[in-house]
Specification:
single chain, three-stranded mixed sheet, alpha/beta, 10 helices
């Protein structure tokens, strides 16, 4: 809407910007997005970088309306943006900091989770995306926020292979012991070199998943009671070289 007001003023159009917007919507030139006051210009559906069929449209619109919004793709949506997953989920996973207020349109159109990343997000598919180390730590910090661990297991080996040895400690700095241990548990089979970075944190038993769910397995090395994962992390295949 702000851009439209600027155009109206620049060209000396007497009609109020909100009336111009209404007429453009009526004639099909402006298409709605989940964010109030942000539209997609219709030709972009075919020629623009973010069209109506682009799965990142909801997040792109929210960021366009508020460039200071600290929101980024996470979970399988982020894995898709990085190229670890073959396709985006039907409903995007978006992480926003705990103290940030998520726009109503974004909350309605996506699956929101809370996460304070230490590393800056990367820009992929035209939107902010959690860095690989941030994505791994988010999984470890809030395992109950993951909608399908079976899906995560499909792409986690590629993410693990891509993790930077310096980036992971940066993202883990200041995290709870439980988060650090769960991260080590997730990487125990795929990246034992990175898992060893947090092995000294192992102490009291840590739960991986909802407390209300039955324990599927107990890992005596990491002292983890696992109620969420479909199989033990040491059984997950590494990506082909």
């Amino acid at each position: 809407m702000g851009m439209l007001r600027e155009l109206v003023q620049r060209h000396g159009v007497a009609t109020p910007a909100n009336v111009v917007a209404a007429r453009l919507r009526t004639h099909g030139w402006l298409l709605p997005t989940p964010t109030r006051g942000v539209w997609e210009f219709a030709p972009a559906a075919h020629a623009g970088p973010v069209g109506h069929a682009n799965p990142t449209l909801a997040l792109a619109a929210a960021v366009a309306a508020d460039p200071a919004l600290h929101a980024a793709l996470t979970h399988t949506a982020a894995a898709w943006a990085h190229g670890y997953a073959d396709r985006a989920p039907s409903r995007l996973d978006v992480a926003v900091p705990f103290e940030s207020r998520a726009p109503a349109g974004l909350a309605h159109a996506t699956h929101l989770t809370r996460f304070d990343a230490h590393l800056s997000p990367q820009r992929l598919k035209g939107v902010p995306v959690l860095a690989p180390a941030s994505l791994l730590v988010h999984l470890a910090e809030s395992p109950t926020a993951v909608r399908s661990w079976s899906t995560v297991v499909e792409w986690l080996p590629e993410l693990a292979a891509d993790l930077d040895r310096d980036a992971l400690p940066t993202e883990l700095e200041g995290r709870t012991v439980a988060t650090r241990v769960r991260a080590g548990y997730l990487l125990s089979g795929l990246r034992p070199d990175l898992a060893d970075l947090v092995r000294d944190d192992v102490g009291a038993v840590v739960r991986f998943g909802a407390r209300s769910d039955a324990v599927r397995r107990h890992d005596s090395t990491w002292r983890v009671n696992d109620t969420a994962l479909p199989s033990h992390p040491t059984t997950w295949a590494e990506p082909a070289a």
